[in-house]
Amino acid sequence: MDLNDFSIKVLQEVCRILKESNKKYDWVGVYVMENRKLKLEAFVGEKTEHEVINLGDGLCSLAVLKNEVVNEYDVKSNPKYLACFPSTQSEIVVPVRYGGKPIGEIDIDSDTKGAFDKADEEFLSKVADLIAPLVSSLSL
């Protein structure tokens, strides 16, 4: 097994643990920056058509471009939301940083409106810091 395969397997396990840790986390994924696009490397939940997201599209790229957490209480009210699943009501996107620069993100969708609070933002930011070396090994 090479380093990339190992990194993806660990990120997949992180997604699984996150999803199982909170009943409001209905879909959990990790996107990695690759050639100025976000590429889905690991996820738990329903398969999405958004495996590659161009910078400038959706809340995912907004989090990377602004280099800050995006916590959308009601995705249906935000025209920037890139719909993955009709059941999704809220979304949180947390940048993964290396050297202070965004190199990827944790993306979580919830079927509950207003599912995410400051505690989620803080917790997921710490998880993002922990996975940063793995994401860095996949980022180009």
UniProtKB/TrEMBL annotation:
| Boundaries of every GAF domain copy | 10-133
Task: Please give the InterPro entries that the UniProt record associates with this protein.
Answer: GAF, GAF-like_dom_sf
One Pfam family, please name it.
GAF_2
- SUPFAM superfamilies on file: GAF domain-like
Q: Know the name of this protein?
A: GAF domain-containing protein
Identify the species of origin: Thermoplasma volcanium (strain ATCC 51530 / DSM 4299 / JCM 9571 / NBRC 15438 / GSS1)
